[in-house]
Design goal:
InterPro entries: AhpD-like (IPR029032), Biofilm_reg_signaling (IPR052155), EAL_dom (IPR001633), EAL_sf (IPR035919), GGDEF_dom (IPR000160), Nucleotide_cyclase (IPR029787), Rev_trsase/Diguanyl_cyclase (IPR043128). It holds the Pfam family EAL. This is Diguanylate cyclase. The protein folds into 4 domains: 174 residues, no CATH class; 61 residues; 151 residues, Reverse transcriptase/Diguanylate cyclase domain (Alpha-Beta Plaits); 253 residues, TIM Barrel, CATH 3.20.20. The protein has 25 helices and 16 strands. By secondary structure, the protein is of the alpha/beta class. The chain has an 8-stranded mixed beta barrel with strand order 8-9-11-12-13-14-15-16, surrounded by 5 helices. Helix 5 packs across helix 7 and helix 11 crosses helix 12.
């Protein structure tokens, strides 16, 4: 490989100096070699006439950030003599139009020579070839026809020389734009040569300097104009293409019209058949093939209209599979779908041909029993359906038993809208589920009243969350060894604006079902922690604890531990001051997930209490799987300790086994001295109940703390 010095020497020998054009590459041998070889092959040794090359270079320099005569090739002007004026005139000439290009192509086609020789061009041919070359350089998209004609007129070899030179011009432009740091100055030797040749232009040097500044000032404007021109040309091309496409589509449509008219009759028939199929699909359940809700409501409406005159009795049964979700979750949705299909077939076998069985959605079905004689006919069908379900279903070698909850609504209500009758049956079905599932219930007006009240309760509860209508009562938790208050359990109450104080037994189930328990629970937790911190500041008693109930909805929150950590931080509480209570049912819902969440809370330093123990499904042997610190014996056992010996024995067993597992015990619902004595004998650590204090507002709880503190100080000082 040659060195940079050898390449530079060769360039100086050719041009008489080392042009600034090559200076950015003088320290990179490979780049300098490539640039010089391109210059040799595409410019210096290109057989195109020197005058034609300079004219093309001069014209196209308007699209470069560096003007003509500052490029290294400007020294070629020395050899052009008076023809240099022709080159300079191109610096200000306008770009050719498509119409002018068409005229120039015509001139080239009509030339006498069979093939144009690039090294020797007459003025007319040179001018036309020059503007055609400019056009294919500038207009890439619109110049395809021009390129094709030039390739034919010049021949492959000459056309390749021309294209190579145009590509080289583009390379020069890109190179100079990429290196704006080059200090291009006019070639004084060229200026002197031109000055002697063009005596009528004595201030040619000033011309070049002014021209350079002018080009640089107009560079941005020229670029914007070029962009606008390109956009306009693209739009024109898009319009032309759209017109061509439209014409082609019209021609194709016209050609197909005769064929389409012949097939019209067949198409109409196919469409009618498709409409019939679509009507069937819209009225039928895709899985079971039964009527869907739409068709069922239509038939129910027709039955209501028909019986207005005949006064015939009919009934609607609303059915819901019990624990269907268990089948889906354990055996998969495919097995669940098969169960629904088999269930539908078994129901259908129990009905008359005039009855309607429909799938409303999910695991919900409805039956319309027409022309029954009395309510016992509907009851008999419900009992028959229940009896049929005592036979197991077989799903992929699995034997599956299921039951159904049924709600029955009679036409004696006199409804005119089918929706009302189906609603009543739905309400009765939910009452059957609430009573233990696997049974039927007949709708009565009391059910509707209760459902309406429940709906109103939900609406009021949502408003209560927005308006923060809740307050907290605090029940002391007492050490059975010292009789001292060690803390309080925070119990939420609802201060209803019309009904007054509402207890949690009434609104917590609704809050759990609707998910409102989550914001309510966080509010209780935040307010209880704030109150405890206030008491700690007032009484300088940092050992007090606060116990707050946590629902299963909270344990399904992914950010539970972060929320609790934030609440503790906001109220400046240590984690050991907070105790969280959960019920046995929470542990059994999703064992692994719950265990993970509880471990995260324990890692924060928070104790976990198992509330209402003995009323759920868990066992003491199962507790070692969970990080439980304290068992709270349900009040139903404690209340009967001094009445029923069996309850006392249950409490004894729970306390003994809990101690063996290293778990403390708190007894709830202590009401009498006798209960307290027995619990102390059994070494129960803590207790709470009305014997000590009912749940009281924060001010009363503060008084209890103050009273206990005064008594303690009296004992110390005496």
């Amino acid at each position: 490989m040659r060195t940079s010095k050898k390449i530079e020497a060769e360039i100086r020998e050719k041009f008489g100096f080392f042009p600034p054009f090559f200076k950015p590459a003088e320290h990179n041998t490979q780049v300098l070699e490539n640039l010089w070889q391109q210059t040799l092959s595409a410019y210096i040794n290109n057989p195109i006439s020197a005058l034609f090359k300079e004219k093309l270079f001069a014209y196209l320099s308007r699209y470069c950030s560096v003007p003509y005569c500052l490029i290294c090739h400007s020294c070629a002007l020395r050899t052009l003599g008076l023809k240099t004026q022709e080159v300079l005139e191109l610096l200000e000439s306008p770009p050719p139009t498509e119409k002018e290009i068409a005229a120039h192509l015509y001139t080239l086609v009509r030339s006498d020579s069979e093939q144009i020789v690039l090294s020797d061009l007459n003025p007319a041919i040179e001018k036309s070839l020059l503007y055609c070359s400019i056009f294919i350089f500038l207009e890439r998209e619109q110049a395809e026809y021009c390129r094709t004609e030039l390739r034919r007129l010049l021949g492959p070899m000459n056309y390749q020389h021309l294209v190579t030179f145009l590509a080289y011009i583009k390379t020069c432009h890109v190179w100079m734009e990429a290196h704006p740091e080059i200090n291009y100055e006019p070639d004084n030797r060229v200026v002197e040569q031109l000055s002697s040749l063009l005596e009528e232009t004595p201030k040619l040097a000033d011309f070049f300097c002014n021209y350079i500044e002018k080009v640089r000032r107009e560079q941005q404007i020229s670029a914007e104009q070029a962009i606008q021109l390109a956009q306009r040309q693209r739009h024109q091309q898009a319009i032309r293409k759209a017109c061509d496409d439209l014409e082609r589509q019209v021609e194709e449509a016209t050609a197909k019209l005769s064929v389409s008219s012949m097939l019209l009759k067949q198409e109409i028939g196919d469409r009618l058949q498709a409409e019939a199929q679509l009507l069937h699909i819209t009225d039928r359940d895709a899985l079971t093939g039964l009527p869907n809700r739409t068709l069922f409501m239509k038939r129910l409406g027709q039955t209501i209209e028909r019986t207005k005159k005949s006064k015939d009795l009919f009934a609607v049964l609303f059915l819901d599979l019990d624990r269907f979700k268990v089948v889906n979750d354990s055996l998969g949705h495919t097995s669940g779908d098969r169960l629904l299909i088999a269930f539908a077939q078994r129901l259908q076998s129990c009905l008359q041909s005039g009855d309607t069985l429909a799938r409303l959605g999910g695991d919900e079905f409805a039956i319309l029993l027409e022309e029954i004689q009395e309510i016992n006919d509907a009851i008999q069908i419900a009992e028959q359906l229940q009896q049929e379900l005592t036979i197991p279903f077989y799903l992929n070698r699995h034997e599956v038993f299921t039951t159904v909850s049924i709600g029955i609504a009679l036409s004696t209500t006199g409804y005119e809208q089918p929706e009302n009758l189906l609603r009543d049956a739905d309400i009765a079905m939910y009452r059957a589920k609430a009573l233990g599932k696997a049974r039927y219930k007949i709708f009565d007006t009391v059910m509707y009243s209760e459902t309406t009240k429940l709906l109103q309760l939900e609406i009021d509860l949502r408003r209560a969350v927005e308006r923060q209508e809740f307050l907290i009562h605090y029940q002391p938790i007492v050490s059975l060894k010292t009789d001292k208050i060690i803390g309080f359990e925070a119990l939420v109450r609802w201060q209803h604006p019309e009904r007054g104080l509402v207890f949690p037994t009434e609104f917590i189930p609704v809050a759990e079902e609707t998910g409102l328990i989550v914001p309510i629970g966080y509010w209780v937790l935040r307010e209880a922690c704030r109150q405890l911190h206030e008491w700690q500041q007032q009484f300088l008693e940092n050992k007090l604890i606060i116990s707050v109930n946590l629902s299963s909805k909270h344990l399904s929150q992914s950010h539970l531990s972060e929320q609790i950590r934030q609440i503790l931080r906001e109220n400046s509480l240590e984690p050991h001051n907070l105790k969280l209570e959960i019920t046995e049912s929470v542990l059994m819902e999703n064992t692994q997930s719950v265990r993970t969440k509880l471990l995260q809370l324990r890692e924060l330093g928070i104790e976990l209490h198992l509330d209402d123990f003995g009323t759920g499904y868990s066992s003491l042997s199962y507790l070692h799987c969970f990080p439980i610190n304290v068992l709270k014996i349900d009040r139903s056992f404690v209340n009967r300790m001094d009445i029923i010996g069996e309850s006392a024995e249950i409490v004894r067993t729970i306390i003994a086994l809990a101690h063996n597992l290293g778990i403390d015990v708190t007894a709830e619902g202590i009401e009498t001295v006798e209960q307290l004595k027995q619990l102390r004998i059994l070494q129960c650590k803590h207790g709470q109940g009305n014997f000590f204090s009912k749940p009281v507002p924060a001010s009363a709880a503060r008084a209890l703390i103050a009273k206990q503190l005064d008594l303690y100080q009296f004992v110390i000082h005496n």
